[in-house]
Amino acid sequence: MSIQLNHKVIAVTGGAQGIGREIAKHLATAGARVAIGDRDAEGARRTAAELSGDVEGFDLDVTDTESFAAFLAAVEAKWGPLDVLVNNAGVMWVGNFDEEPESATRRQLDVNLHGPIRGVKLAAPGMRARGRGHIVTVASAASKLSPPGESTYAATKHGIFGYLSGVRSELHKSGVQLSVVMPGVVDTELAAGTATGSAKMLQPEDVARAVVAVIAKPKFEVYVPAFIGPALRWVNVVPQALRDVAMRKMVPNQVTSTDRSARAAYESRAVTGDHEGEKS
User: Fold this and answer.
1) Best CA proximity match to 190, nearest among 156, 159, 160, 214
2) What is the pLDDT of residues 134-151, one digit of tens each?
């Protein structure tokens, strides 16, 4: 039986394309009222028009508190109280840690870490007051791993996992659910030119299905594919020397394996340059 989310009001950040677009598509198919927020406002509205169901695009800059608050207010003005916020917007720079531009470091912190924190602080109090609500954050397997070449990206994902763990404890018995979805490498522009390691390349729809499933049946930690969770738990109990060997086999070295030319256009626009939109 397919999952039904009839009339749930759900906001998705970074939803103009990539994983966010696929999440919006699957949510709308399940019957939800879906608000797509993206810094590329034209792209958000175009995507909303292309998808079937009750979907609308909005302007959203997750790095700006006023913009995020206005986005949530516009969604609630249209459809009523927010049931679910999906923090999806994300950016990534890949390369040697000492070659990473300051602008790329700042951008990743602003979008990947401060963005979801901002969303939680803006959405969770109203949910707590109503005694219900759900915030789903699309993070990464890098929340628990640190691939060479993705040090700052991994730091932001480790950081948001830690933040949500603490907030989850604060919201215990409030009726507000928190979930962290942690996929491996997904075939999107954000991951262009990178290697997948021991896991196969995921598709955006794999993550979208996981998001819909966790909204229907909430839990805190969701790994895509599911074997990542048990594998990490096993690796973390072995001695450090063996752990290092296992991690080198499981986790790709993005410094040596990434095709930098394949990432140049994306990183210039989304991470170090004009920041047209947050693509995940």
Assistant:
1) 156
2) 999 999 999 998 999 999
